[in-house]
Amino acid sequence: MHGLWNILTKHQEQGGYSHHPETLRWKKKLKALYLRHNTLVREFKKRKYLHKTPLDEKLATGPAKQNILLNTLSEQKTCLKINLAIALRSKIFKQFFSFIFVIIYVLWKN
Fold first, then answer.
1. CB 53 within 8 A of CB 2
2. Where are the alpha helices (DSSP H) in the chain?
3. Residues 6+ apart with CB under 8 A from 5
4. Quick one: which of 24, 26, 40, 105 has the most CB atoms within 10 Å?
5. pLDDT of amino acid 29
6. R_g (Cα) of the chain, nearest Å
7. What are the residue boundaries of the structural domains of the chain, listed by start?
8. What is the pTM of this model?
């Protein structure tokens, strides 16, 4: 989030990921990005994470609400389900091979 903020403020929307769809989505909506950042900071604090890089509120201009989505909510939910399925398969895969390794080790020791 800080990288996005820096592209839109310090780098005058130039270079790096300045033409990335997610960057363009926040263009001229720095107040909304600032508020989203603060929401994330509150979540960090609830989880006992430290946050020492506040954003400059003076730069938070434009609308306070982000109303542009790159994907519909339905598409986002589908992506999350797919990612969860991949993560679960990966975890099961790792557990399976850990189990096989233990069996091989036990057989080898005996």
1. yes
2. 2-8, 21-26, 30-46, 73-109
3. 30, 33, 34, 37, 55
4. 26
5. 95
6. 22
7. 1-66, 71-110
8. 0.67
